[in-house]
Write a structure and sequence with these properties.
The protein is mainly α and 181 residues long. The chain contains nine helices and two strands, in the order ααβααααβααα.
Length: 181
């Protein structure tokens, strides 16, 4: 990780423009936060007790007629603990979240260049399906996932998918009731 301090908006915009070629490939993501936070974990992973009841939280706040992913995104944007970590494709939005706090502390904007997958991909479906199952045993999750979607996902492939961070291609996120998607 490289520390590249920018002190003016013009410098920031000029620096971020360097990454423009990746934007055209849906590979560019940003996250803004206070520098004192050394890790980037989704809210559900920050508290072991909440992680143990992830399924109960999901079920309590889910809305019928929405996909698992749409429900997670809606819950995330309404302050519920989820496995989603907010990112943006807009560097100014990331800057806003980095500096929009009551504390006068250093802030950071992180730039990620990553391959992304469609919100409808098997990977995104699996990641958003996990909170719908009370069990955390991979064979149970995979069996229920395969039943729901008609896939033949293996336990090994599920572990591979669930062991990595997943970046969603922005233009594949669709939910007319959630303006932030």
């Amino acid at each position: 990780m490289r520390d590249d301090q920018q002190t003016t908006l013009e410098d920031y915009e000029r620096r971020v423009a360097f990454f423009d070629p990746y934007k055209k490939q849906d590979m560019l993501f940003f996250r803004g936060q206070l520098t004192k936070y050394k890790t980037m974990n989704p809210t559900i992973a920050r508290d072991e007790s909440k992680l143990r009841i992830e399924n109960q939280i999901f079920e309590k706040y889910k809305e019928d007629g929405k996909s698992d992913f749409q429900n997670l995104a809606y819950q995330q944007h309404n302050g519920k603990p989820t496995r989603i970590l907010d990112m943006t494709t807009d560097p100014l939005v990331a800057l806003f979240f980095a500096v929009n706090n009551n504390e006068r502390e250093d802030s950071s904007v992180f730039v990620f260049i990553r391959e992304s997958v469609s919100a409808d991909s098997p990977e995104a479906k699996l990641m958003s399906f996990v909170p719908t199952v009370a069990s955390r045993e991979i064979p149970v999750i995979v069996d229920k996932f395969n039943q729901k979607y008609g896939f033949s996902l293996t336990n090994e492939r599920a572990i591979e998918i669930l062991s990595k961070d997943l970046f969603i291609t922005p233009n594949t996120l669709k939910d007319s009731s959630n303006r932030r998607m």
